[in-house]
Structure formats: C-alpha cells, structure tokens
Specification:
single chain, alpha/beta, Rossmann fold, six-stranded parallel β-sheet, 10 helices
C-alpha cells in the first residue's frame, strides 16, 4: 500500500513502535522506524540538537523508493514538522506532537507538578530525572488503567534525552506555511504533556482538524487502544493512496 517512516520521541527509541509497526505491516504497508542519533545509549549522555534529528529522518526517508508518509510522536512530531519545511513527503501524521509554538507552556505545567525532578534535570543538564521512577513514567506517558506490565517495560527501556534538544523544543518554532504535505493530527485526551487545545491549534495551523482519542495518554503507540490509533493511520494512508490513484487516472 504505502511506505511509512515512524519517528519516536524523547527518551524513547524504535522499540516503542514494534507492535504498532507490525500492525501496519499486516495491513500491507512497508514500515520502518528510525533511531534518532544517541538513542542507543541507555546510560550515556547525548548532546544533539533537533536539526541533527531532522538529518536522521532525512537519511532514513532516503532509503525508501518514494517519499514516505512520516509518523512523528511527541518530539518526533516536531522533528517531522521541521523536516517537512524543506522536504516533500507523501503525507505526515502527528501523534501527541510538540505544538507549533513549542513546549514552554508544557514545561511550565510540568514544573509545577514535578519541581524537584525539574531542578535535578536543570542542574545536571540531562532529562533522565524526569523518567526516574515507574510512578512518573505512568503519570507522564500512560493512564491509571494501563497494565503495569506495559509501564514496567517502558520504564526499563527509557533512556536519557538530549538537554540541548530539550532547549530547542522551547525556542525552535515551526513554519506551517512551508509545509505542503497532507497532514493528520492526532491527540490524546489524557496527555500529561500537551492539552487538547494545543493539539487542535496545531491542526488548525496546518489547515486541518485534530482527531482526539479521549481515553488515551501521551504514549499513543503503547497505551491501551493503540490498535485504534494504528487503524486510523492505516485508513488515512489508504485514502491518500486512493486519492493519488484517482488523480493519476483523471
């Protein structure tokens, strides 16, 4: 059907897409998940910028025969947005993505909720303190109803994130007017990072309407009902393929 490139967010890696990617492959798509540089070092410090991650997406996209559909989660959503400002794509999906105006509002909210971990993060210039306990991982990425086994597996796999990339998320804004690719914007009603209003404003900036999964949390590819998210992306990608086929016939 289509070629799809999955782009993970902060603290995560390609591992977060394993089941999600398999479901899309079973629908007939060619699917790959990029590993953003530095995200194979669970105990190491990484000092990369968002533009480095954009370069990683560019290299991964070049491996496809044609421009793929890009699916970006959270920080990966910002990376996808920046990539699309200078590059074509068959389409793009933003999942619980960093908004077009950055993360300052989200950081302010989380600072009130987790003042001590944020203090540690800024003193150490690393983001590991924000995912240091299973409780925090559940509160940030999942809902109270998410099976503990899912939370535990995620906790064991999460790693540090680049402090420089974090700074970029507050100051590197996107330029939606430069983006020509069709866009699907998905949000989660119980997202601890980004509000539904922020998701809707992001969608509006790209000339579309957000679709919200009201009972899901930030990690939409791992939380309960992730299958529904994958199926929505599958249906949307199929509509792109059908529209392209109709256009070629006409």
């Amino acid at each position: 059907m289509a070629e799809i490139l999955l782009v993970h967010g902060a603290w995560h890696g390609p591992w977060c897409w394993i089941d999600f990617a398999e479901r899309l492959r079973n629908r007939g798509h060619q699917v790959q998940a990029v590993r953003l540089r530095g995200h194979d070092r669970p105990r190491g410090r990484i000092w990369h910028r968002v533009h480095h991650y954009v370069e990683d997406v560019g290299r991964a996209a070049a491996d496809f025969a044609a421009s793929p559909v890009l699916v970006g989660h959270s920080l990966g959503g910002l990376v996808v947005q920046k990539y699309l400002e200078r590059n074509p794509a068959a389409g793009a999906v933003l999942m619980a993505s960093i908004p077009t105006n950055g993360t300052i509002a989200a950081v302010a909210r989380l600072l009130q909720q987790y003042p001590v971990p944020w203090l540690k993060a800024n003193l150490l210039l690393r983001l590991q303190p924000l995912v240091a306990t299973r409780r925090m991982v559940r509160e940030l990425f999942f809902t109270p109803d998410t099976p503990q086994a899912v939370v535990d597996d995620c906790f064991e796999r999460l790693q540090d994130e680049s402090y420089l990339a974090f700074i970029d998320t507050m100051v590197v804004l996107t330029l939606p007017r430069r983006v020509r690719a069709p866009m699907l914007v998905l949000g989660a009603g119980k997202d601890a990072f980004f509000t539904v209003d922020e998701v809707r404003r992001t969608a509006l900036a790209y000339g579309t309407e957000a679709e919200i999964f009201p009972e899901m949390a930030h990690d939409m590819m791992l939380d309960r009902d992730w299958c529904k998210v994958a199926d929505r992306i599958d249906a949307w990608v199929r509509s792109l393929v059908d529209n392209k086929s109709d256009a070629s016939i006409n």
